[in-house]
Amino acid sequence: MNGLMMDYQLTLPTILRRAETYFGDKEIVTRLPDRSFHRITYAESCRRARALAVALQELGLERGDRVATLCWNHYQHHEAYLGIPCGGFVLHTLNLRLHPNDLAYIATHAGDRAVIVDRSLKPLLDQFVGNTKIEHVFVVEDDYEDLLAGVDPDVWRDPQLDENEAAAMCYTSGTTGLPKGVLYSHRSTMLHTVGVAASNPMSLGISEADSILPVVPMFHANAWGYPYLATFVGAKLVYPGPYLDPQSLLDAFVQEGVTWSAGVPTIWLGILGLLDEDPGTWDLSRMKGMLVGGSAAPRAMIAGFKQRHGINIVHGWGMTETSPVASNSQLVGDLADADDETQFDYISMQGLPLPLVELRHRDEDGNVLPWDGESMGELEIRGPWVAAGYYETPEQADRWTDDGWFRTGDVVSLHPRGYIQIKDRSKDVIKSGGEWISSVELENALMAHPAVAEAAVIAVPDAKWDERPLAAVVLREGRTATPEDLRDFLAPNFAKFWLPDRFEFVSEIPKTSVGKFRKTELREMFAAQAAVSS
Ligand code: ADP
């Protein structure tokens, strides 16, 4: 017997209508390229988003056509996040940190027909647009305004979308192989928004009363869903424009009464450094929590923020393929009242899955592993906002299991209460004498040393053990440490065979376009020398 409920379609126009109806006077604030702050209300932003939708329809684009953006975080990009899908088109966010050749490949593979580009990024677009099928270019601060001005947004042609139609697409940064396109539907985007809102990590949930500053770029993984989440709950938004340095961010936090922010660890390490240097300069008493994800949040950083500055770090895990948020640090049951050290242990893990997301980990033979906090295997995931395939990339079909789970490529253990602990990405894992060594755990431990600013651990070939760990270390300015100091520092907490044989002091760790350690480059730098020095 079927239920007797409405077949109400989960599509983005519903949150657009809600925001303009109920939260019309809430603000979206943007730091402009000249560093001044621009302010717009949700009512005006939604009107402009509808104007964009109509303008693209009048341009002759067809339903489902891809419209790209090449933009920083600002109110026009926010309009595109809503206006493009609400018009029946697919928002394709291009990652401005990629090489022009990669951008040409991605825009062509996606079949982009139009692009909205920041004036400052036009020179980048010019380097690859000729090698794509893009027919229409609109420059923000320029003819993009003419595009909007040319239509009457009250002539709203609701495309009556089906919830399974595509809303947006993102290519994963492609640290291995060619970039792959993930194609989100209206339904998956809506459910992701609802799931994140319902997850309420560490009882710090987001509501209309919040002021959210997403540091996470809108050109990567849906800005972790914040444009939609904020619109959904009616929270104030503060977009940082291109200014992602610690000082600019801290100033914006104070000025705009920011209560919630989100970004990768590199950003927060910089902010913690500045707060430690100048404690008391910034009043962050309104800040409820800062979400850290994209790479493991080091425990020392989590503790540093809480103990020295009273700021809660919430740790999240996810992938472009999972919309991206799949888990975050929940402190459930007695953990909510546990002492600081216990809480930091749990926050430095990758948390519990969001409602509607399921997880398991399996070994190389496909056996489901126990939740004992020890057994390491590949994490698999399923849920309504997890990709079911890559866009026109059939050769990648083996990333999905026969019984419908997505293989994340992350090697984890699961704790008895269900907490995920990421040990490595499968391609980064170190196997020494047949035993796995977690580079992430060594990195976190090294970054707790007072002289260490950053540390990345990689495998280098070894004749006897097959692979051995090597630590590339960036020292804090004015501080010193020898390899022996660092090894002694690690020794009490790790099995002897885990201790890196080599420490290489470098001026910086190479990073990917979104600030993750680029371990392939480190391996190229150091693997060749292994035979000589070991
Ligand atoms: P890419 O796969 O191209 O690097 P993603 O942004 O989709 O781009 O990266 C997802 C990966 O980032 C995850 O599979 C995981 O390895 C890593 N990751 C994300 N969040 C965390 C976290 N909190 N801790 C450790 N690793 C993380």
- Enter the CATH topology name of one domain: Rossmann fold
Our Rg estimate from Cα atoms comes to: 23 Å
Please give the count of helices. Answer: 15
The largest β sheet comes out as: 9 strands, mixed
Note the gap between the termini. Answer: 69 Å
CATH superfamily of one domain: ANL, N-terminal domain
Structural class: alpha/beta
Shape: globular
**How much of the sequence is in beta strands?**
15-25%
Which ligands occur here?
adenosine-5'-diphosphate
Number of strands: 24
What is the average of the pLDDT values? 93
Helix content: 25-40%
**Uncertain stretches:** 530-534
CATH class of one domain: Alpha Beta
* Overall CATH architecture of one domain: 3-Layer(aba) Sandwich
Strand order, main sheet: write it out: 2-1-10-9-11-12-13-14-15
Structure, described:
It is a single chain. The chain is an alpha/beta fold and 534 residues long. Among the domains are: 13-201, ANL, N-terminal domain (Rossmann fold, 3-Layer(aba) Sandwich); 428-534, ANL, C-terminal domain (GMP Synthetase, Chain A, domain 3), CATH 3.30.300.30. 30% of the residues lie in helices and 23% in strands. The protein has 15 helices and 24 strands. The strands form five sheets. The chain has a nine-stranded mixed β-sheet with strand order 2-1-10-9-11-12-13-14-15, sandwiched between helices. The chain has a six-stranded mixed β-sheet with strand order 6-5-3-4-7-8, with helices on both faces. Helix 3 (75-86) links the parallel strand 3 and strand 4. The protein binds adenosine-5'-diphosphate. Adenosine-5'-diphosphate is lined by residues 172-173, 175, 221, 293-296, 315-320, 324, 350, 408-410, 422, 425, 516.
